[in-house]
Input
Amino acid sequence: MAELNHTIVWSSDQKASARFLAGVLGLPEPVRFSHFDVVQLPNGVSLDFADHEGPIAPQHYAFLVSEEEFDAGFAWVKARGLEFWADPARHQHAVQYMTLPDFDWPRLREQFPEEFENPVSASLSPTDWVPLRVVVAAQRVQIFAGADHAPALDVRKLGTLSGGTIGLWLGNGSDGDFANLRITRTR
Output
């Protein structure tokens, strides 16, 4: 009977990635084997981390853990102040950028998946007023949500328009209000 023995996990920093996964799962420190950093799972399967230059295709790994193991891993993530979310159906609160008519959502999601949208901080409450600042300058668009000093989204500007209308959009089925809207020229 065939059994999975190991798989290679491509990463931009194999040591840090292997240590991160071992920490979240409460496993022993990774072991060096050849040019891999290996995380050994209790069922005998190993995840062999290797550096890869350039873009890395998304990889999916699912682990069956007990409630206690989940709680310990979640506490490990929170203790390090890491941002997290779990919402593969994209129900999280997010900021998105598009420009019509050339770059609508179907085209952006197909040609540039997840490039022009990003979740906002989980600390923002969907029932509170959330300050939102949009900065369009040169060839960049930045969106700041809440009191964060770092942009929730920082992307290249799409299209060639240098003027026109601005639209604020709420997702299908969402409700929301806008107040104190100001448009100012960047300096």
In short: Helices lie at 14-25, 67-79, 105-111.
